[in-house]
Amino acid sequence: MSPAAGDGTTGESGAAGEEPRVLVSVEDGVGRLTLNRPEKLNAFHGDMRDEIADGLERLGADDEARVVVVTGRGRAFAAGADVRYLSELIEGQRLEEARALVDAGRRVVTAVVEMPKPVIAALNGPAAGGGANLALSCDLRIAAESASIGQTFNRIGLHPDWGGTYFLPRLVGPAKAAELIFTGEMVEAREAERIGLVNRVVADDELRTEVEELAGRLVEKPALPLRLAKRAVRRSLDASLEEMLDYELEAQTRCFESPDAREGVRAFLEKRDPEFGT
Predict the structure, then answer these.
(1) What's the whole-model pTM score?
(2) Where in the sequence is the domain holding 126, given as residue range(s)?
(3) Per-residue pLDDT of the chain (278 residues; tens, 9 = 90+)
(4) Do both 215 and 235 map to the same domain?
(5) Can you list the positions of beta strands (E) in the chain?
């Protein structure tokens, strides 16, 4: 396993002997970012949010990583904010520090959305609050049967952040989004699949295999069409049909000019598998 542009980890390791809170690596074209506070259900503490953003930005800039997988270590994807730490800021009315935590989330989800490659969230367990919205910012979500996801903010008197009010209505519609935000309930994996929060649900012991298989298939795809298609899907949420037709014309022209298009067409006509290089 090769590290991503460094020693394979990003972020502070805390006290001596502790593992880093965010693990980053690249292997066989797949970049991986793993939240690594399993004893705290991967809750975000202190500047861990910046460490996540740093890792995502490194993977986005690493040409060896053609697909990125985000997951959590242990029995949770991410429990959102570390409430004990958040309590210190609220009780002390350290509002600038609290605002900085929310704004760090802006950098995290922006890194996912603007990354020029597919990002898959592997939901190995509960994803709550900011953890849920980190998952929703990804392009694809594969969930283990034991996973769940929820907008739990108002359970502690808070409002959704990390892009939840943007991503959620676009995935499930405004009425369902309002219900999920107002109730603050965790949604079990199968129900999340039914309403469109996740793409697929698999057995717990098959999650890694399923995600690796999907990531491997995407690694084999030509990078340029995937990059342009990701941008198109994101742009389409706020664009008119005319704007998207213009974008498609521009994107397709760029593909026409690419070596991979020539290879893809030749391979099809020669009845063989293409060998894409970009």
Answers:
(1) 0.91
(2) 2-219
(3) 334 433 344 444 444 457 899 999 999 999 999 999 999 999 998 889 999 999 999 999 999 999 999 999 999 999 998 899 889 989 999 999 889 888 999 999 999 999 999 999 999 999 999 999 999 999 999 999 999 999 999 999 999 999 999 999 999 999 999 999 999 999 999 999 999 999 999 999 999 999 999 999 999 999 999 999 999 999 999 999 999 999 999 999 999 999 999 999 999 999 999 999 86
(4) no
(5) 2-3, 9-10, 22-27, 30-35, 67-72, 119-123, 126-128, 140-144, 148-150, 186-188, 200-202
